[in-house]
Amino acid sequence: MSLITTLIKPDSTLHVVYARIVSPREYHLVTAKNASIDIYSITETGLALIESLPVYGQIETLLAFQPVKRPDSDNFASSSEGNSNSNSNSNSNSTDWIFFSLNDGTTHVLCYSSGKFVCFKSAERDNEDRRASTTFSLVHRAVLDPSGSFIALYRSVGYITLFKISKRALEAITKPTSVGKKHLESIFSQAHIVSPIDFVDLKNMTFLAGMKSPTLAVLHKQQEGGRRTAGNMSGDALYSVNLFNVDSSKTKLIPRASLNNINLTVFHIIIPISEPLGGFILLGGQCLIYCRGSEKLRNGTGSDKLDTQHVDFREGGIGQDQVFTTYSEIDYNRYLVGTETGHLYLLYLKAVDDLGREIQAYLVPVGQTSPATQLVHLSSNYFFASSHASLPVLFQLESEHNSFSIRIIEELENLAPIVDIDLQNDDNGNTTITTCSGGVTGSSLKRIEYAYQVDRLAEISLDAESEDIEAVQSMWQVGNVTATSFLSGTRLISMDEDGEFSELKSWQGIDLGMSTVLLGKLADNLVQVTSDRAWMPQLQKSWSDESIAFASLGAEYLALCILKQSVVILDETLERLHSMSFEDSISALNIKDDGSYYAVGFWNTSKVSVVDVQSDKVYIVDLGSNSPPRSLLFIKETGNEIIIMIGMADGAVLVFDVLKNEQIAGFSIGDQAVSLQEYRGQVLAVSTQVCLIERQPESSFQRHTFFVTRIHCETPVAWCQLPRSVYGEGAILSASDNGVLVVSRIASNPGYMCAQERRFEKSFARRIAHNYNLGLTAVGTLPQMLWSQNHTADSCTIHLLDQSTFETLDTFKLEPSEIVENVTSISSEMIEFEGFIVGTSCDDSASANYESAVSTGQGRILLLIVDRENRKLRLCTDMKLAASVFSIELIDEKLTAPTVRLLYTYQSHVKELLLNRISNDTFTLELVPGSTLKCSTAPLFISSLNNKVVVGQLLQRVTSGEYSPSYALDKTASCVGGYWQSNVELISSNRVLVCDNELNLVVLEISSEQENEPSNLSVIYTYRLGELVNKAVRLPRGNRWEQRFQKSVDYKSHIQPQAIIATVFGGVYLYSEVSDASLDEQLDILQDNILANTKTINAPNGGKKAIDLYRE
């Protein structure tokens, strides 16, 4: 039994519409992100997410319509696809509905009624039970005819489904839950599947405007063989545009006219043209074909051939290395069109005569964005470009003196497409994920961390009287007043019930001329501590000393550090109760809330003293560190246990049992002094990073467990908590270096988010590997080459980066036309080697094409050593081979002393390679003769764990075995696992994950009846994830998920998180093995412990929670 949990939902924006889905008076941007429908409102500053609806399955098509039956005699005045929100016949008093289809063949309609979203779904798949194509393509589309009466859906090879809107949909507008059982039969009275014979290799389709009856134009491959014509001398396959009328009574297509012999290398997309021009155009890079049709054809009185006009652009044009892929209508003669590289152009059509039978065309460049899968015109020259290969972007088209440009308003975060990932456990058990992400125009290296998100709510600027802004020393919150302390004095900020801030010139007798060491309530009375006194203005009492360095406040007791070496305890009336002197200078001070104990840290001795106030007994805690403590916090005290948390000057946080003088936990959160404060039952630790430290409930098997989670925000100089206010519970006020105060709120639940990014503008990050001993990352990049308008030949490059900052330390260029296929980190104490081994392929076409590289390519293995002192790469040795090297795997070092043994792919074999040390800086690579595994097809992937090894081959087959120095692999077994594999990973001694290009995750089991007999390899689970799974990576042990699962159920249940799965569309998932079948009912609880629950709009099993839950 397995458990698959979403860590990061896929954010590739595949489809988008601009619709009035919530209110008939307000438009919203509706995006389909592979497995969710997100609804945004548009503001002056960008997009604001108002609803995210998870969908169980991959979304293939999306469109907006109104479920109102129009009379068949209505003239169709506008186009349906280019501008999704355009509908001149729409009912202004009705909301739009969303039609979408999934990759499993089902169709759905989403609407909003009575304050909630309602989803209608097809009762079952289409009557052929066909599954949609599994790879992304622009030909998966749904189009709406301009009258709103028909929807045409194309989702699998050769088939078009027509839906006719039912009159019962009028009832569904006002009361959708009463119609049928929320099945599409309630909305669409007929659904007709058109024969596939006419639509082989369909490229595009659209309904046309200006036609008497609904007319569908279909661009598809011609049935007869391609032949040479004046426009096609190469003999390439030719395409046709066929026009069909929709028979309203029988819901079928009637052929009307056709345009044949279209060469798709010249003309790429079909665009319907609105009235008064009408017709459609086939758009190419240097010209277009305009097809309007005769009056006979437009009136529907009979079949006729299409009248066409070949139009060369009077201005503009694009290079032959680009193609147009998408468009958006601005008005009837202006269109924004985009290429596959993200370049945008304004297409302007002008009628030559009054009848519009001839036109002129102009193509004007306007700028570049992410490559768009779809362009949508919003309003006021605002556009949205959805993208599955880069960042979706909201932008505005600006013009000045007949010159156009674009202004980027907002880019949406997107990990897709994830090309490669690597995992790392930090000191706190959190698994950090580093991804190679990006598409056509460039890519990024992104560090994804488990962290709390901070919402920035307000900003307060403290106007300085001089140009030099003083640094904030500390901040204290009392009621609705914040005291901000500077070296020269104290400033008071008040917050009213509406969240408005104002500065106070005086307040309850507080001394604003002195820097405040502490401000708070002592037994319900205000107390201010400065460098020379403790002052209670309400009682007009004070306790004076000219050398107060630190202060700590309990409920009824105040602790002061005097003369740097003494501690004085005062009661609620500032009467002296206790004092003690120490030999060393004090660096930190903290008193328990009830005043029973206080703790003192010292500058020069690595110790903390905990003092019992009643008995004056001193407990010594020996820290064993060269760094002094800078912050102390009591977190537990019972009759036999006192637990204290210590923030060190070097960024470490230590947890000690005081009575036992025993360290029970320790972690690092930065490299500067740590400040510790209580925050909503947890501990907020601030160093160069900001973290929340959460203590877990004790159990029978583990008493002290702490989870440290980073807060994704700027490091504050000082901070304080705000009381319940207009900003809600948990709001904090922090100060930055420039004296600006910021109100923020920490999210209630943590999640994975991008913490750092390194962009490669003219290349693509393809392979990644971490060297944890040196804190370095190696990234293999592929040059942009053919995807650029002005490309130049370049080589693949190995970048050496600092693992923490992603700063480039060194680069190493490969040979021209050499492609990096694999990067593996090697850290061997036995031969004292630190570096990377790289496998390459060589393809004269300079493209990463597996088929050509496997059959005709060559390859090389490079050994790159890292100079520890200057952190530079040096080529130690290389080995040229007559075949591509797609994978190199390091065998467990424990088995291979005194050399490092590796397995690598070579033609149809897996062979063994030795890494030997000759001298201090000299190493060699040695092929092991006779050690080989013969595969039925080319091996592409190798994964190993201890002495177990699995090999994924080019087509379907997976082989497992045990490493043997004599045979490479021994005791082998094979089975079919997935089709056209994208990755194979050995996640345990008997489990293998296989990712394939059919959207499957296949789990294989390695079993053996007898110890010395060959193992069996068999498929035990196949999961249909609905996404193209690119890679699975085995989780390092000691990760945080193990601890969370063990806290959720009985420890003996063995729920083991084992792998991270990444998909092309940007989804990241956690894969776990559940060995106890009795836990089936508890799986929902386990999911709750990972991420907060959400609801799906089409979840199986009667609308269960939207968790990616897959059972045996």
TrEMBL record:
One of its GO terms (molecular function) is nucleic acid binding. Residues 797-1095 form the RSE1/DDB1/CPSF1 C-terminal domain. Its main location: nucleus. The keyword Protein biosynthesis does not apply. GO terms for cellular component: nucleus. GO terms for biological process: mRNA processing. Keywords: mRNA processing, Nucleus. It is found in: Nucleus. Transmembrane segments: none annotated. Residues 15-412 form the RSE1/DDB1/CPSF1 first beta-propeller domain. The keyword Nucleus applies. This is DNA damage-binding protein 1.
